[in-house]
Amino acid sequence: MAEVRFPPQERPVSTVVETDVLIVGSGPAGASAALALSTYGVPNLVVTRYASLADTPRAHITNQRTMEVLRDLGVEQEVVAQATPQHLMGNTTFCTSLAGEELGRVRSWGNDPLVQAEHELASPTRMCDMPQHLMEPVLVDAAVARGTRLRFETEYLSHTQDADGVTATVRDRLRGDTYEIRAKYLIGADGGRSKVASDAGLPMGGQMGVAGSVNIVFEADLTRYTAHRPSTLYWVLAPGATVGGIGAGLVRCVRPWTEWLIVWGYDVTAGAPDLTTAYAESVVRKLVGDDDIPVTIKSSSAWTVNEMYAERYSNGRVFCAGDAVHRHPPSNGLGSNTSIQDAYNLAWKLKLVLDGTAGPALLDSYTAERAPVGRQIVTRANRSIRETAPVFEALDGLSPQTPEQLWANIAARKDATEAAEKQRDRLREAIAFKVYEFNAHGVDLNQRYTSHAIVPDGTPDPGFARDPELHHQPSSRPGARLPHAWITSGTRTLSTLDTVGRGRFTLLTGIGGEGWVRAAEAQDIEIATVVIGPGQEFEDPYGDWARLREITDTGALLVRPDGFVAFRHASAAPDAGELLADTLRRILGHA
């Protein structure tokens, strides 16, 4: 019998595919959502319109909070093994080219000795530089190994939803036919031009396309210009560097010291340049400053700087995460970090709703908690671009002028005159102020959630003692991330953060907190219990936990699966069981 062939538009729709959670997109948000859901035992399916995972470095800075998430999900060591370590990231250099004059440096990404101490006190993890084309396989491989189904070359087209679920229509880009996927929930993690977010009608603030940029990935051995000042980023102040882009020319290390990515701006009103190999090599030569060193161009792509954020992250059973809901330049290294943390926040809530432990109202807390974070990081990243202008201003490099005049201005800073001394002062101050981009430890760790999944304890908020963008301030207040302290269990040393997570709630108390332990064990939901004190399973030999916990030995902290404090009681309570039950009803949407 002859094979029956249908024209593409007449091919029959295949049998409906079913899953609990459909994830559109395999980038950091989608891949980490899949990993978390599969770790929690939730069936999920990832579709991506592309034939492979990321093939360019793109996002790369991986901060401590994200490393904590990856630690809980069991892939921290895989990331550490492939990433550029923190000590090779931190000599952020401002120069006329890599081979040219150096104008100054900023100790970055926790490598300033004082900031490094804050990093070590804040977390059991270390930040690192993990390019996206290396990060995605780690996340996806682990997700698939734990049960995620993954379909490449599968394009999301549309969705409809009803009271029981979501029906998405997708197109197999290899066969050309369309079919339906039926899921109880849909996660749109399909990037900065998210069709899922658009179809879901998520309201957006801000604007797209505020400036034009080009990424150029290339190979070159730049050891002679970089190994003595190891860094992730080298900022180049050259003629044309203030046109579009991210405030200056940028040479970014992908792999020390032979693989690189350049960011160079263009006038977005005039359109992107013709990205020929010759054009790409000319930009590389301009920023490297060496016309003789061998260079191999690997890829070039144009993109736009965006300043847009979603005001709401969900509509019914459709949720969006990552660049779909916060679109911004790479400044501060916040993109993939916030994306992974979005997914981590959402995954445990979906798990508890799907298994009947929580009511659907729990999912309302996703927008309440993550949308303010998204808006903050969009604002911070775009402000960082604007904070580069004073570096040029110190060199009188913003007004229209010839390249020769800019070089003369740069040279003038070396003169033995009062004017040159003032210029040097302005330049040092402008470069030092970039700490808000390169050492914003508080932006990374100071999230404070407010939602019905957080139960206030009635105490006044003390605010922040220091700049909340630059400095992390640990707190056990409901809505804050559980403070890190090193404790021991037998011969093991572990973080307080290692006692929580793994998809379940945890109650922490001390000697005399037996009433809280009994209360936790009496609940219908699984709650791990951690008693810290002399002679207990966990001990506090340094006294760090006693200083950070902000409760007495007999008090209690109830910590959510994502490591955030949900409930705090300073001391013992005769009605601990009732308090804990009421708290859980509220958090789980049963109140």
UniProtKB/TrEMBL annotation:
**Looking at the record's lineage, which domain of life comes first?**
Bacteria
Region: Disordered; residue ranges are 456-482
Its name, as the record gives it, is FAD-dependent monooxygenase
Q: Is Transmembrane found in the keyword set?
A: no
- Please name the source species: Streptomyces purpurascens
Q: Mind telling me which SUPFAM superfamilies this protein's record contains?
A: FAD/NAD(P)-binding domain
Keywords carried by this UniProt record: FAD, Flavoprotein, Monooxygenase, Oxidoreductase
Q: Which GO terms describe its molecular function?
A: monooxygenase activity
Q: Which InterPro entries match?
A: FAD-bd (IPR002938), FAD/NAD-bd_sf (IPR036188), RIFMO-like (IPR050641)
Q: Where is the FAD-binding domain?
A: 18-381
Q: Indicate the segments annotated as coiled coil, or none if absent.
A: none
